[in-house]
């Protein structure tokens, strides 16, 4: 608990304190700055727009896949969650390769229409929301699909028995009952969009959002202002969280049934063709970013300029990654830092989950809040908090010098992933019959034996799933890294960004492919580990 | 118990006095905040005796059991085994066998590892403990089921695995929380007899919780009836049925209408609709010989229904007729707002018929207000 207070709460307190170090001076500066006001407004607009865009894609797709049977359904279902497998920065550069000024799709459209210039520019709010919608609709899709799966088909049947037509049933029965799923996923999108860094950073152009403003202030040495901006960003996130919780608290029912309903087969020939064509288009759109990154990873650096596709292909990019020490370094950095952070997550979150679920003690509410807190705080804010706290050795105020060392990034990853691992462990332990612990003790088992033979096996699915998610997130982490990295511990994401800036698209793409490959490898490892034990 | 472990379990139970001694709760009280879940409860279970803790949900019976097991520590009072105070002894050091309501079998272990778990905790070698676990499984009629997964067992099999797991450690006392409540009715009736036979054989104090008085009647030697944390009465099923100490006990145990009466010593007068009848009565042991306000319990099997109008009978109308196997149960609405259930072999009376009700020879339980 002390550890969590120190690493989770203290940095935020330091940031808030830092924002007041000059009295209200920094706050006045913030309020007076048109750039900052614009950034706050833009951040909120982008977040809300991202929510609506994600809902617009995710809800219909969930309905289409959940309720109807049509040719190509299985394929579409298989690729529907693919965007979630892209590390944030990789998704962004894939879009750059596809829809950027010199991107594949842009060029194709330009040639087809015989235009002199690119038909659009991947810049500004529209571009950011576009990328967000692509990567974040997955949350909506997954939540609503799960909601539909649990949906009690007899409710629908009851409504139609009472004479309600399809539209009335949808409006009065189905959608209201799906609202918790919709609201939950909307909140998730909002929080992610608000804290999103990579898309605004790469596509923003002159556009300012809070998360990039924070980094800019920090680089300019205006730490006081950066603290204010961080506090505002964190407060916006918390306000969003509270708002959604309040909206959701007005609903007091749950879907208890096991559900289960058959999908309706589409019989009309014309609609059948339409859905098939539409799903083919969606599948291509979903797979294209991955394919493009793989394709570009074989492109010779510097050779792709005005052509539709890269003109020259080579294995050179990969060869260099594996043979040049400077290029190999970020890979070992990312993997080792991710493993360290995940190991710490597993230990701390297992203890926290055990205490929260199975022990009754005074500080339980506080502990629950502590492990959930990093979720409500955007990564940029977490990173800046760490920068503000662990920047010198001072035992009196509990500060240790970590900034500029290797350890600051694993610490940041650890904090970011606490809620992920803790909630997975908690849900596993909640599924355990609480009397198992009593039973073990009653049979004479010591505390250690009960832990080892009963509690740990019960927590294992959560530990594996949560640990996997944590490792995957950490190995591709970008947002906190960009604030805290140094040259010696630079992770893969920072190296991708550096290569992109040097216009070494091939190398950047090769790193991205490697990252996707690492994610895949970890997923398979976790799955085989789980199968071997089960 | 045939699968008597003779290694560590015996050396642990070398203290023969505590092994053979009764389990007693002495004035135990447990409060949760403002709420008193168990209020000054005392009873004793002798070696080889089966005591059922009976009560509605929320009556404190499970909390009482958990105090006996050591999972809850009483705020007042003591728990003793063979006269030795074990109030502060942790559950893992009590050496009790417990069967949980939902059995609490470890889902990630096969059946035999579940049963052997308590022996594993006592450091018994793997070969030895598996041998004993299998013997214990055979003892509950589950030969060769050791390798099966918990999920593949039926409810009745799970119950027996839980029992085997509790018995294999040679417990000093057995505690069972609603052991029959998760079984379907047919199996439940069969298991009552099995359970009683098995618990008998072990020869240690056995305490079991149930909300079902029929289970308690069928399995227990004695019953402790709890209501809202308070112990109402402890006694044999017959005592509770025939000589309840209070209206509350009479209302909970068995069926019957409780009607006002005038206490006249060996008899009591019950007047319904102006017709007064003197009934033979019994009182609970130690009850006062005269009650100012008294009530008589009219059980359905102690009344007689007749379609002819007797002068000395209570007149009424049949409100409800229910077929209950060997007998028909009539609910008869009498005068003064009193209604009674009557069992009858004859089924010729029908709803809305006017009938007369006479008490048989009794005796009828007499209880205070």
The helix content of chain A is over 70%
Annotated CATH homologous superfamily of the largest domain in chain A: MetI-like
What is the overall shape of chain B?
A: elongated
Form type of chain A: globular
Strand order of the largest sheet of chain B: 6-7-8-3-9-10
Give structural notes.
The complex is a heterodimer of chains A (534) and B (369). Chain A has 534 residues and is an all-alpha fold. Chain A has 2 domains: 42-208 and 229-297, MetI-like fold; 310-534, MetI-like fold (Orthogonal Bundle). Helix content of chain A is 75%, strand content 1%. Chain A has 23 helices and 3 strands. Chain A has helices at 2-19, 25-32, 34-67, 73-79, 88-99, 104-113, 124-150, 153-161, 166-195, 198-203, 210-219, 223-249, 269-297, 316-323, 325-358, 364-376, 379-389, 408-431, 435-442, 447-475, 479-484, 492-501, 505-533; strands spanning 21-24, 68-69, 264-265. In chain A, strands 2-3 form a two-stranded parallel sheet. In chain A, helix 15 (325-358) packs antiparallel against helix 16 (364-376) and helix 15 packs across helix 20. The mean pLDDT of chain A is 83. Chain B is an alpha+beta fold. Chain B has 2 domains: 8-239, Rossmann fold (3-Layer(aba) Sandwich); 255-368, Nucleic acid-binding proteins (OB fold (Dihydrolipoamide Acetyltransferase, E2P)), CATH 2.40.50.140. Chain B contains 10 helices and 20 strands. Chain B has helices at residues 8-12, 16-20, 61-69, 111-121, 126-139, 155-167, 185-202, 213-219, 237-242, 247-252, and strands spanning 23-32, 35-45, 50-54, 76-81, 84-85, 97-99, 174-177, 206-210, 222-227, 230-235, 257-263, 267-272, 275-282, 294-298, 303-306, 314-324, 327-334, 339-344, 354-359, 364-368. Chain B has a 6-stranded mixed sheet with strand order 6-7-8-3-9-10, sandwiched between helices. In chain B, helix 4 (111-121) packs across helix 5 (126-139) and helix 4 packs parallel to helix 6 (155-167). Chain B is elongated and about 80 Å long. The model of chain B is unreliable at 1-18 (pLDDT under 50). The interface between A and B is medium-sized, with 17 and 28 residues.
């Amino acid at each position: 608990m002390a550890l969590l207070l120190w690493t989770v709460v203290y940095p935020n307190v330091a940031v808030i304190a830092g924002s007041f170090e000059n009295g209200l001076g920094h706050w006045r500066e913030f309020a007076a700055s048109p750039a900052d006001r614009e950034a706050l407004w833009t951040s909120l607009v982008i977040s809300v727009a991202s929510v609506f865009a994600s809902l617009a894609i995710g809800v219909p797709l969930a309905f289409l896949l959940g309720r109807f049977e049509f040719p190509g359904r299985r394929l579409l279902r298989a690729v529907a969650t693919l965007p979630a497998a892209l590390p944030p920065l990789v998704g962004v550069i894939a879009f750059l390769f596809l829809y950027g000024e010199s991107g594949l799709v842009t060029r194709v459209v330009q040639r087809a229409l015989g235009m002199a210039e690119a038909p659009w520019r991947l810049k500004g709010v529209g571009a950011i929301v576009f990328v967000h919608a692509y990567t974040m609709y997955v949350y909506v899709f997954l939540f609503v699909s799960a909601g539909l799966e649990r949906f009690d088909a007899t409710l629908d049947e009851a409504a139609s028995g009472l004479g309600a037509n399809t539209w009335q049933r949808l409006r009065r029965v189905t959608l209201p009952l799906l609202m918790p799923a919709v609201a939950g996923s909307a909140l998730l999108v909002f929080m992610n969009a608000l804290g999103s860094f990579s898309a605004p950073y790469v596509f923003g152009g002159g556009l300012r959002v809070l998360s990039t403003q924070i980094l800019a202030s920090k680089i300019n040495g205006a730490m006081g202002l950066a603290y204010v901006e961080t506090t505002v960003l964190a407060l916006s996130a918390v306000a969003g969280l509270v708002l959604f919780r309040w909206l959701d608290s007005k609903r007091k029912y749950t879907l208890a049934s096991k559900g289960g309903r058959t999908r309706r087969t589409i019989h009309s020939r014309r609609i059948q063709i339409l859905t098939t064509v539409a799903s083919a288009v969606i599948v291509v759109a979903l797979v294209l970013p991955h394919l493009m990154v793989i394709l570009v990873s074989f492109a010779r650096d510097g050779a792709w300029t005005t052509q539709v596709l890269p003109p020259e292909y080579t294995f050179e990019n990969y060869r260099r990654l594996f043979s040049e020490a400077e290029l190999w370094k970020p890979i070992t950095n990312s993997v080792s830092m991710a493993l360290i952070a995940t190991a710490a997550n597993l230990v701390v979150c297992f203890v926290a989950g055990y205490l929260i679920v199975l022990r009754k003690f005074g500080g339980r509410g506080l502990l629950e809040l502590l492990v959930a807190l990093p979720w409500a705080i955007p990564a940029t804010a977490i990173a800046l908090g760490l920068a503000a706290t662990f920047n010198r050795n001072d035992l009196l105020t509990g500060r240790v010098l970590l900034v500029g060392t290797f350890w600051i990034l694993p610490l940041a990853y650890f904090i970011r992933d606490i809620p992920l691992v803790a909630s997975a462990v908690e849900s596993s332990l909640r599924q355990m019959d609480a009397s198992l612990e009593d039973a073990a003790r009653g049979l004479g088992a010591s505390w250690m034996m009960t832990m080892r033979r009963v509690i740990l096996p019960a927590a294992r699915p959560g530990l594996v799933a949560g640990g996997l998610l944590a490792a995957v997130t950490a190995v591709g982490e970008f947002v906190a890294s960009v604030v805290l990295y140094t040259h010696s511990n630079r992770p893969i994401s920072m190296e991708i960004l550096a290569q992109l800036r040097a216009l070494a698209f091939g190398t950047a793409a090769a790193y991205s492919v490697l990252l996707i490959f690492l994610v895949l490898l970890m997923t398979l490892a976790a799955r085989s580990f789980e199968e071997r034990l089960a | 118990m045939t699968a008597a472990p003779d290694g560590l379990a015996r050396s642990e139970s070398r203290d023969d006095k505590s092994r053979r001694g009764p389990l007693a709760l002495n004035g135990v009280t447990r409060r949760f905040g403002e709420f008193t879940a168990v209020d000054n409860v005392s009873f004793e279970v002798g070696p080889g005796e089966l005591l059922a803790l009976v009560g509605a949900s929320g009556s404190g019976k499970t909390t009482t059991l958990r105090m006996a097991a050591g999972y809850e520590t009483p705020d007042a009072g003591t728990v003793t085994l063979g006269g030795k105070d074990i109030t502060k002894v942790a559950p893992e050091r009590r050496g009790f066998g417990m069967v949980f309501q939902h059995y609490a079998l470890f889902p990630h272990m096969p059946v035999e590892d579940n049963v052997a778990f308590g022996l594993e905790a006592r450091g018994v070698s793997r070969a030895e403990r598996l041998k004993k676990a299998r013997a214990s499984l055979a003892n509950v009629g589950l030969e060769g089921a050791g390798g099966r997964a918990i999920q593949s067992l039926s409810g009745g099999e799970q119950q027996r695995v839980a029992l085997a797991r509790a018995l294999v450690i040679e417990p000093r006392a057995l505690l069972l929380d609603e052991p029959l409540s998760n079984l379907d009715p047919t199996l439940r009736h069969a298991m009552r007899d099995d359970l009683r036979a098995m618990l008998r054989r072990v020869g240690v104090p056995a305490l079991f919780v149930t909300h079902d008085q029929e289970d308690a009647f069928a399995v227990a030697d004695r019953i402790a009836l709890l209501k809202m944390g308070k112990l109402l009465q402890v006694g044999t099923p017959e005592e509770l049925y025939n000589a309840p100490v209070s209206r509350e006990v009479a209302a909970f145990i068995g069926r019957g209408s409780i009607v006002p009466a005038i206490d006249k010593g060996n008899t009591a007068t019950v007047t319904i609709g102006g017709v007064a009848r003197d009934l033979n009565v019994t009182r609970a042991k130690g009850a006062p010989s005269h009650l100012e306000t008294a009530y008589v319990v009219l059980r359905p099997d102690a009344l007689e229904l007749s379609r002819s109008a007797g002068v000395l009978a209570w007149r009424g109308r049949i409100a409800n007729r229910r077929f209950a196997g060997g007998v028909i149960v009539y609910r008869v609405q009498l005068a003064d707002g009193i209604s009674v259930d009557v069992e009858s072999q004859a089924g010729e009376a029908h709803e809305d018929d006017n009938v007369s009700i006479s008490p048989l020879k009794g005796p009828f339980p007499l209880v205070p207000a």
